[in-house]
Fold this sequence. Notes:
Blueprint: E1 2-5, E2 10-13, H1 24-34, H2 37-62, H3 74-79, H4 84-104, H5 106-125, H6 131-154
Antiparallel strand pairs: 1-2
Amino acid sequence: MTYYNREHKSRYKLMNTTLDPSNPSTRQIAEIQTASPAYQAFRLLHIGFVAAPILAGMDKFFHVLVNWDQYLPASVARLSPIGGHNLMLVVGVIEIVAGIGVAWKPRIFAYVVAAWLALIIVNLLLIPGYFDVALRDFGLFLAALALGRLSQQFSRA
């Protein structure tokens, strides 16, 4: 990716390399990189996909936002050997781990979250009346894929 610095009338090619902050020219490159809309989109998605899964996962235990058990189809609850409510507690733990994973290694866990969202979408399509929520989660699925792609360039881990 090439950025044009108007002040110095030069071009900086940014690659997936480590920048040396003590070198003035690499500091300028880092400033140009962080000012880019793509980097800012990465940061927004990164923060969002750390916070949202952790908060949603924690709420599976407390039901402050919503009673999450209603999002589990009766057929799935009947098939679960641990019961519907306990299954949602396991889902909560998985979501917390996924959020922490995105914070730690977004290059990998963005795709884990995308796969998890795909499963949630399928689950929601099994419940009549929740197609709007499935559509919202499809948007989140696309955003998680975008985070995964942006992580290839901007993630340090």
